[in-house]
Write a structure and sequence with these properties.
The chain is mostly beta strands. It contains no helices and 14 strands. Strands 5, 7, 11, 12 and 14 form a five-stranded antiparallel beta sheet that branches. Strands 6, 8, 9, 10 and 13 form a five-stranded antiparallel beta sheet that branches. The protein has a four-stranded mixed beta sheet with strand order 1-2-3-4, with no helix packed on it.
């Protein structure tokens, strides 16, 4: 079973243990050890308030603020990812998750369609739950999936089929944890949605 640890990027150990995960708290990056090198899996952004759908999508860059970032700042040609130009990627991290971690974590700025949710449980045995859509006050959440997802520790659980994929403008995305087995050290959730 894969294992995971967290700490600063400078404290990350040398690569050499395949399928081990490391979350750098200072840069908000998740890495997987290939046995030879650390491979960046995802980047979490602290401040999405200045991001528009055309300014940012999945990239290998880290920013603590998006003020002043333009559409071409990550790519030599703004049309390189034209088909992805309206996709928003949001990642968040919970250290030492428990089964009562039911919390709103992101407000959707426009009507959108949910495309994909990835759940990564690090340590322990597994995490069970799903992302829900709540109203503009973060209340009255409804399921986005027909059934909860079980994220087995060390294995990415990807969901691309939804019972409720339409996200209302101003709605909050909310994580609902149903159960946890073992003692996970972290849970990383990445959501992708497209402007409707």
């Amino acid at each position: 079973m894969a294992s995971g640890t967290i700490g600063t990027l400078a404290a990350r150990p040398a690569a050499g243990t395949a399928d081990r995960f490391y979350y750098a708290t200072d840069t908000r990056e998740l890495f997987r050890d290939t046995g030879a090198v650390w491979e960046e899996i995802l980047v979490s952004h602290a401040d999405l308030s200045d991001v528009t759908a055309n300014q940012h999508h999945a990239s290998s860059h880290t920013h603590t603020s998006h003020t002043g970032i333009g559409a071409t700042d990550h790519h030599s040609n703004a049309n390189d990812h034209a088909q992805d130009s309206d996709i928003v990627v949001v990642t968040f991290f919970i250290e030492n998750p428990v089964d009562t971690d039911d919390q709103a974590f992101h407000r959707v700025p426009f009507a959108a369609t949910l495309l994909q949710v990835d759940y990564l449980c690090v340590g322990g045995t597994n995490w069970v739950g799903q992302v829900e859509e709540a109203d503009t006050n973060g209340l009255n959440a409804v399921a986005t999936q027909a059934a909860d997802t079980t994220a087995t520790a060390g294995t990415n659980a990807q969901v691309t089929s939804f019972s409720n994929a339409s996200l209302a403008s101003g709605a909050y995305l909310k994580l609902r944890s149903t159960s946890i087995s073992g003692t996970p050290t972290s849970l990383v959730v990445t959501i992708q949605y497209r402007k409707a």
